[in-house]
Design a protein that fits this description.
The protein is built from seven helices and eleven strands. The chain is α/β, with parallel strands linked by helices and about 240 residues long. The chain has one domain: P-loop containing nucleotide triphosphate hydrolases (Rossmann fold, 3-Layer(aba) Sandwich), CATH 3.40.50.300. The strands form two sheets. The protein has a six-stranded mixed β-sheet. The chain has a five-stranded antiparallel β-sheet with strand order 5-4-1-2-11. Helix 3 crosses helix 4 and helix 4 packs across helix 5.
């Protein structure tokens, strides 16, 4: 399935008027594809991610996740949708200092109702997928910045989400570690068949993404260069437009 945002408009109070954060944005992200959203600070990138995560309700438009339109869902239903369908990789890992890398994942799986052994097995599978199986017993202070971000990514995937939303994952990393994290997200998107949206300021490591969308003043644009670099394959490239 996929993530679809259709004609999304979002405004915020601004004195006696309202400030438009997103202006009739439409973007489709099929499963197994990665869309990078770039743009200057204040352009609307974070607002787009928050709407996609159902953390903010837009003024108008529709968010559809894995075939479910979220507009009419109750607060409890949205919470359940986020728990089972959406994985969020925050800019800062915010790992619990007292838990090992494996335990960071296990606790999320157990909150979702998995038995301890099942949770442990899934945690180890994902740590292996992000190249940290040998670091499973280490706590955050024993891991590098890049390793902590990998645990953060694995944690977002622990409940097998259909949509993966990633917020500035390389902002605290050097170029080499940042490139490795982007490569990892790209690989996991294919392997886990997620519809992935990556918000980033860094355009230097985006050669393998399916589509690059630029946000300026709340409007989403698809540059010609992004169309030319879209990768062919069985998974359709994501498409975005602003009207």
């Amino acid at each position: 399935m996929s993530l679809n945002l259709t004609d999304i408009t979002l405004t915020y109070p601004d004195g006696g008027s309202r400030l438009t954060a997103l202006d009739q944005v439409t973007v489709d992200v099929p499963e197994g594809t990665l869309t990078a959203v770039v743009g200057p600070s204040g352009s609307g990138k974070s607002s787009l991610l928050a709407v996609a995560a159902t953390l903010i309700s837009p003024d108008a438009g529709t968010v559809t996740i894995d075939g479910t339109a979220t507009t009419a869902l109750t607060r409890a239903e949205l919470t359940d949708l986020r728990r089972h369908k959406i994985g969020i990789v925050f800019q800062q890992p915010n790992l619990l200092p007292s838990l090992t890398a494996a335990e960071q994942l296990q606790v999320m799986a157990q909150i979702d109702g998995r038995k301890p052994r099942t949770a442990r097995n899934r945690a180890m599978e994902l740590l292996d997928a992000v190249g940290l199986a040998d670091q499973a017993g280490r706590r955050p202070h024993q891991l590098s910045g890049g390793q902590r971000q990998r645990v953060n990514i694995a944690r977002a995937l622990i409940n097998d989400p259909r949509v993966l939303l990633v917020d500035e994952p390389t902002s605290a990393l050097d170029h080499e570690r940042g490139a490795a994290v982007i490569d990892l997200i790209t690989r996991l998107t294919r392997q886990q068949a997620t519809a992935t949206v990556l918000v980033t300021h860094d355009r230097t490591n985006l050669n393998a993404v399916d589509q690059i969308a630029e946000v300026h003043d709340g409007r989403l644009h698809l540059p010609a260069s992004a169309r030319q670099s879209t990768r062919p394959g069985p998974a359709h490239a994501a498409q975005g437009r602003a009207r």
